[in-house]
Amino acid sequence: MHWKSRIFTASDHDSLVVVEIGCNIGDIVRETMNVGLAVPLGGRPSIGSGLWLQGGIGHLGRLHGLTCDSIVGAVMVSVESGKVFCVGHVPNQYLVTFKAYTAPTYSVRNWIIPLVDRLEAQLTLSSFDKLVASTLPPNLSADAYLYRDNDKLHLGVTMFECSTSLLSVEALAPINTLLGPPDSFKIVDGVGLFDTEMYMSVLHGSRSGGKPSSFKRCLFLKHIGPTNIAEILLKAVETWPSPLCYLHLLQGGGAISDVPAHTTAFGCQDWDFACVVTVYDIARDLLPWSRGAYGADLGLEPRDAVLAVEAFGGNGRRLAALKHSLDPYNVLAYTCPLPKVVKQKLIILVTGDSFAGKDYCAEVWVAVFTAQNLTARAISISEATKREYALERGADLNRLLRDRAYKEQHRPELTRFFHDQLRQRPRLPEERDEAPLTIFSHLVPDHKILDVRVESSKIVVRRGYQDIDGNSSDSKSPSNSTALEYCPSLIFQNDTTGMEAATKFVQDYLFPYVHEDLQSLAHMLLGKAGISADKISIIIVAEFRAQRGRELLRQHGFGKVNIESLLVFGGA
């Protein structure tokens, strides 16, 4: 059967490419090029629709975004009911519709740079990242390759320039300064572009005959120049099982990053390089430093599960819920493994100045949660550092954790030890980070995070927080702290001794986030509208017997909201 791509012109400036099921990338490129149009596609010409729906990274991405973000309409068949749905702009039935752009001409330049040793390789990667890739305009993209040829390390660079007019040379100055004049240069159209990829035409003398086949996984990186990331990349090249293995770093950014993650299923948008690897160990090592994984590559391989968790950014829970709703019997089981729909976990960041009672409050709140049969634990950022410090330096861990005077004696060395850790692991949180909710929330997009600041207008000496002689120090009194430059989620004023105030605070302000009654009520009242308490000023509540509706809302977090009664009469 012959499948078609059809061109629809919506206006003088907007054109649509309508694709029938069965078309592959090569079909679309040829048909659109014949009428002077292009769709931002990626991969090889034989790849089909699975790529369009799960991403689509190509050389037009920096200029026009990912393939999936150019889809403006589609026809879907419900696996639950068999009904056909038209979603978005669909001129005819059974079609997928792309937004189209003026077809460009591509100029392709290649550089091959032999690297003497690791140090030169690291410096070259850093310079390429900072001086070349970060300075390019959106119509230029630079892909890099790390590979071995004749047992020597090489860096390959391919520069793609998309242009609908005369080709420019000004933007090439940084790369010409770093790498010198290109080793090859050609001008091609959209079809010829497929054969210009370095892994198809240059690497290892093109031993593959233009038809490479290999296992691949892809991780998204913000930078490739930092020492910790460059070391992983270079280690990969040195330890690969085959001399034909290579690292492919496709440049992103530009229009890809312009799409807000919450507006698309493709939740990983904030990255500058897509790193294609052929060994799972390398993917595992890069994962902690990555901005996500490419879902289009993932499947039934059990080791893909850890990558799938990072494949959807902050959209994982929403997509999992949508998949469960639209496909309750899991008919579409053999696709990228979506995470299971689970209850959202709550992380409470307890912040505040020294001596405010952060650790004490955290312990009380954990005890209150636990008493209500909720699983909770307190984790101290500094405790992990103290454990490692005690192990390495022979200090008394118990006294470091519980004896303030002993800890103060070790503070200078502890500080230096932590800064050494921070240089090696830059994503470690610091105890003095400002606005931690803003800084760290992207690391756990599937969790609800609260920043609860503990303040005290006077020092309350608690057990475990006094000096050996029993006297407290006023030198770091919270009353001397400067005004906050950010707004925490909640503030607890810790000015009284005993557990009563801390216990009441967790019951009044923290329970609403985990209380099942409130969660059910919130789902009924606000869930479908996607509205939360902090986005509304008035709730109109229909009174139930014993007036439970208004009281329940007031008890569980909506106390600051102006709640009005609505009398409902029979037959109204």
UniProtKB/TrEMBL annotation:
<keyword id="KW-0274">FAD</keyword>
<dbReference type="GO" id="GO:0019287">
    <property type="term" value="P:isopentenyl diphosphate biosynthetic process, mevalonate pathway"/>
</dbReference>
<protein>
    <submittedName>
        <fullName>Uncharacterized protein</fullName>
    </submittedName>
</protein>
<dbReference type="GO" id="GO:0006695">
    <property type="term" value="P:cholesterol biosynthetic process"/>
</dbReference>
<keyword id="KW-0560">Oxidoreductase</keyword>
<dbReference type="InterPro" id="IPR027417">
    <property type="entry name" value="P-loop_NTPase"/>
</dbReference>
<dbReference type="InterPro" id="IPR016169">
    <property type="entry name" value="FAD-bd_PCMH_sub2"/>
</dbReference>
<dbReference type="GO" id="GO:0050660">
    <property type="term" value="F:flavin adenine dinucleotide binding"/>
</dbReference>
<dbReference type="GO" id="GO:0004631">
    <property type="term" value="F:phosphomevalonate kinase activity"/>
</dbReference>
<keyword id="KW-0285">Flavoprotein</keyword>
<comment type="similarity">
    <text>Belongs to the oxygen-dependent FAD-linked oxidoreductase family.</text>
</comment>
<dbReference type="GO" id="GO:0016491">
    <property type="term" value="F:oxidoreductase activity"/>
</dbReference>
<dbReference type="InterPro" id="IPR050416">
    <property type="entry name" value="FAD-linked_Oxidoreductase"/>
</dbReference>
<dbReference type="InterPro" id="IPR005919">
    <property type="entry name" value="Pmev_kin_anim"/>
</dbReference>
<dbReference type="InterPro" id="IPR036318">
    <property type="entry name" value="FAD-bd_PCMH-like_sf"/>
</dbReference>
<dbReference type="Pfam" id="PF04275">
    <property type="entry name" value="P-mevalo_kinase"/>
</dbReference>
<dbReference type="GO" id="GO:0005737">
    <property type="term" value="C:cytoplasm"/>
</dbReference>
